[in-house]
Amino acid sequence: MTEETADVQQAIAASPTPAAEFADLSRRRQVEVFFSLPQTVQKSLLADMDVAQVRRFVRRLDPDEGADVLGLADEETRAEVLRRLDQDRREALSYLLEFDPETAAGLMHLDYVTVDVERSLADAARRVERFEARNDAVPTVFVVDDEEFVGELPGQALALADDESERLRDHVEETPVVTYDTPDTEVVDVFRRAPERSVAVLDDDGTILGVIYAGDLLRVVEEEASETLYEFTGVQEEESILDGPLAKVKYRYKWLIINLGTAFLAAGAVGVFEDTIAAFTLLAVYMPVVAGMGGNAGTQSMAVTVRGIALGQISLSTGSRAVSNEVVAGAANGFITGVLVAVIATVFNQSPLLGLVLGVSMVLNLVIAGFFGTAIPLVLDRIGKDPATSATIFITTATDVLGFFIFLGLARSVL
């Protein structure tokens, strides 16, 4: 995204009259800016636009893009815009709006033609020419056998044909298919397994409904990535960088209240050792070091485990080896960092015993981090909860509470 586009986005998001800001853009810039805006801002913009402005914007879009826009508008605006469009565009948009936007049908285009497998290449070429003349677009050619999907006729078969009387049967290529209600994330998986140029969308009875191109999945892939990041940090998926402060408070306060509860739990663990800390105040200096290292190590283990779950590489029933590996790695990393912090405490605080307590605590807390950072996501996945959403709070609670108990308990016994 260019710096200029980012400036325009911020101006639209911050403006009390975003429709006026949007109207000042050229037609090409409007398309570029609108589809790069967060969905919350898109809805606000459409709510501020009058019906005529929405119609002008939608009528030159591809049907699938136009359906995406009208799907965000209120029902009254949507109905009025459809009423004012020409019949062909109205029918195409109404058809696409019937489907869930987060399914294969919500991604599909209508730029396709069907040709019977017994027809010739010349017949297919004529169908393509008629479609291009009517729609000013090059269609995908799907081949059917008495309405049953067979595959796709590649464009080069028409361009390089020596004899146009040849039957299509010898040129058909196998093409992946999905049903109209397949979730868009599963469509992404289909392209990952078979990186084809297109995928056919079928109705329950096998009738062709549309076509999805690889480029259409960029938005889904980006949304998947941002959703995972948002879940990982406890931020609502709807929130964007362009939201105002009140919206950000609305999206975040519940998560922060939960974190506040776990913070009090950790504070309670520290309170048990109040006398120990009062007698040896240097412990308070090193407590954040122990807790912070444990939390970071646990988050690392969690990230690797969640990715393994997402890729189908691990589950609770097969996770014992992964847990063992993370525990051993935690012990090794704990030893390395523990030696460093022990040397620092011994040199700067002239206290070998404090260094020993810190070193042992570091080893044990990173072992705990490795165990819980792996086990908690696996357990949450087994019980049907999203580990990316829920695991972090449990892992940091475990490393904080148990880390404080170990560190302060050892200090009470040794110091």
Q: Which of globular, elongated, flat, extended, rod-shaped describes the shape?
A: elongated
Largest sheet: 3 strands, mixed
The spatial strand order of the largest sheet comes to 1-2-3
Give the termini separation.
Answer: 58 Å
How confident is the prediction overall: mean pLDDT? Answer: 81
Would you count the extended β strands for me? 6
Radius of gyration: 30 Å
Instruction: State the share of residues found in helices, binned by percent.
Output: 55-70%
Instruction: Provide the low-confidence segments as ranges.
Output: none
Strand content: 5-15%
**Count of discrete alpha- or pi-helical segments spanning 4 or more residues:** 19
Order of helices and strands: HHHHHHHHHEHEEHEHEEHHHHHHH
Structural class by SSE content: mainly alpha
Nutshell version of this structure?
Helices cover 67% and strands 7% of the residues. It is mainly alpha-helical and 415 residues long. The strands form two sheets. A three-stranded mixed β-sheet has the order 1-2-3. A three-stranded mixed β-sheet has the order 4-5-6.
